[in-house]
Amino acid sequence: MTSTHALFLGGRSGVGKSTVAFALHDLLSSRNVTHAVVEGDALDLAYPSPWKHQMAEHNLRAIWANYTANGYHRLIYTNTVSVLETDKLAQAIGGDPIVTSILLQASDETTAERLERREQGRSLDEHIDRSARSAGFLDAKSPASVLRVTTDGRTPVDIAEQLVSILGW
């Protein structure tokens, strides 16, 4: 039986988590490497917020069970704080997975520029402020075992290539 290898990709809003995950998906697909991408933000996006019920972990468990039943063993999971929650996420996917945690980082200027492409008005201001706060929090709270990868001035494909090299996929 092949072990699960999970990449937990975290970082502030606007750092490029989803964009890099999609570039990594394209790169791996072009190399015929079996994998699955799960956008963690969508696993508990509801109102009122179900986070206190561990909805994201329950949904990840169910989704990953479907993937593993069909032979998948590489998971790319994106979520802002995933690098802080690797133990409970690894428990949710079950078994004894190989875990790689990567915190994407970028400057305030870079993330503000990226956020301007998808947010407007008051929402933009709120996202920029929250992103700046979360950047410091994530950097301070992430364990030393979490790899840091800077996205400033880099293409998603370049970052995806670096991640493939790190992961050995």
TrEMBL record:
InterPro entries named among the record's database cross-references: APS_kinase_dom, P-loop_NTPase
Keyword Transferase on entry: yes
One Pfam family matching this protein: APS_kinase
Domain APS kinase: 6-43
Key word Transferase present: yes
Keywords: Transferase
Annotated protein name in UniProt: APS kinase domain-containing protein
Species of provenance: Corynebacterium glyciniphilum AJ 3170
